[in-house]
């Protein structure tokens, strides 16, 4: 299939459509990446041309093809204990503050979005087990969400490459993983401990049921959004989190440039963002 099949006008139409559906915006520098994946789906669906494929994509009632395409377009590259300082912040600063003021005995709820292939969610579970001295006192719920259904299946299986686990201490690797040829599978108890769900952060209908979280990890996602989508994501998190709850972003992301809804909290380990206690 020649590169000229998807012309500049086609690319712009698709880019605007995909942005409206997912909040993800592709720059011109991503043109080759986008074209190759569109061509793959045009061929797989026997559409014959971009125009036919794009018509089918927009009007398919089930949304199945949009999900296939989204799975191809999203980037899912992470590893265990990435940006570990925030996990340290969770157990040393955030959880002690939350539990000190928590009057009910309801579980502490953590939302990880995007889930990617599960490394971040499982890292949180491992970190709590290894380093939080109140893990036997409190119940924890970890919900891990992503727009990509293929990557969620991988997360549930919990099988990882050497690269994904390379930063884990040997003691932890041996304790929670089983070696399988050149790969490692995380133990069954941790796979059962994390709930994986499909959510489009840019779709209010998708996120409406996500409420009453104490901590949200949304790291290295907002860098793919434009200002409008970042602001919408900040408002979604505001609705999803309890007063006094915390939002953790990636090291190159800042809520201060996106929304004034949150208080900036500077802990010894990390800067995070808090929904004010007086908020409703």
UniProtKB/TrEMBL annotation:
Instruction: Report the domain of life of the source organism.
Output: Bacteria
Q: Which GO BP terms, alphabetically?
A: methylation
Record keyword Methyltransferase present = yes
Q: A Gene Ontology molecular-function term? A: protein-glutamate O-methyltransferase activity
Span of domain CheR-type methyltransferase? 1-278
For this protein, what is the EC number? 2.1.1.80
Which reaction(s) are listed as its catalytic activity?
A: L-glutamyl-[protein] + S-adenosyl-L-methionine = [protein]-L-glutamate 5-O-methyl ester + S-adenosyl-L-homocysteine
Instruction: Write out the entry's keywords from A to Z.
Output: Methyltransferase, S-adenosyl-L-methionine, Transferase
Per its UniProt record, what Gene3D superfamilies does this chain match? Answer: Chemotaxis receptor methyltransferase CheR, N-terminal domain (1.10.155.10), Vaccinia Virus protein VP39 (3.40.50.150)
**Pfam families, per this entry?**
CheR, CheR_N
Question: Which InterPro entries does the entry mention?
Answer: Bact_Chemotaxis_MeTrfase (IPR050903), Chemotaxis_MeTrfase_CheR (IPR026024), CheR_C (IPR022642), CheR_MeTrfase (IPR000780), CheR_N (IPR022641), CheR_N_sf (IPR036804), SAM-dependent_MTases_sf (IPR029063)
Which positions are annotated as binding S-adenosyl-L-methionine?
76, 78, 82, 120, 146, 200-201, 219-220
Q: What does this protein do?
A: Methylation of the membrane-bound methyl-accepting chemotaxis proteins (MCP) to form gamma-glutamyl methyl ester residues in MCP.
Name recorded for this polypeptide: Chemotaxis protein methyltransferase
Say which species the protein is native to. Answer: Candidatus Symbiobacter mobilis CR
Q: What is the lineage of its organism?
A: Bacteria, Pseudomonadati, Pseudomonadota, Betaproteobacteria, Burkholderiales
């Amino acid at each position: 299939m020649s590169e000229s099949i998807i012309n500049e006008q086609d690319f712009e139409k698709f880019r605007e459509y995909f942005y409206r559906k997912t909040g993800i915006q592709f720059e011109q520098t991503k043109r080759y990446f986008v074209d190759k994946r569109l061509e793959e789906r045009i061929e797989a669906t026997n559409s014959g041309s971009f125009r036919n494929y794009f018509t089918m994509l927009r009007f398919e009632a089930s949304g199945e093809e949009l999900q296939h395409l989204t799975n191809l377009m999203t980037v899912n590259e992470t590893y265990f204990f990435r940006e570990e300082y925030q996990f340290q912040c969770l157990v040393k600063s955030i959880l002690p503050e939350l539990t000190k003021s928590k009057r009910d005995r309801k579980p502490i709820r953590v939302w990880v979005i995007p889930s990617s292939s599960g490394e971040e969610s499982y890292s949180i579970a491992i970190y709590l087990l290894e380093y939080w001295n109140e893990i036997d006192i409190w119940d924890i719920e970890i919900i891990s969400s992503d727009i990509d259904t293929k990557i969620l299946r991988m997360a549930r299986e919990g099988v990882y490459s050497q690269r994904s686990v390379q930063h884990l201490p040997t003691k932890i690797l041996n304790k929670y993983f089983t070696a399988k040829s050149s790969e490692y599978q995380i133990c069954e108890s941790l796979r059962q401990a994390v709930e994986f769900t499909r959510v489009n952060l840019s779709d209010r209908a998708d996120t409406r049921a996500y409420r009453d979280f104490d901590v949200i990890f949304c790291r290295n996602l907002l860098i793919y959004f434009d200002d409008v989508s970042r602001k919408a994501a900040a408002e979604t998190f505001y609705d999803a989190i309890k007063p006094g709850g915390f939002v953790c972003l990636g090291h190159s992301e800042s809520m201060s440039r996106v929304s004034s809804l949150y208080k900036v909290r500077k802990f010894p380990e990390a800067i995070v963002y808090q929904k004010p206690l007086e908020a409703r």
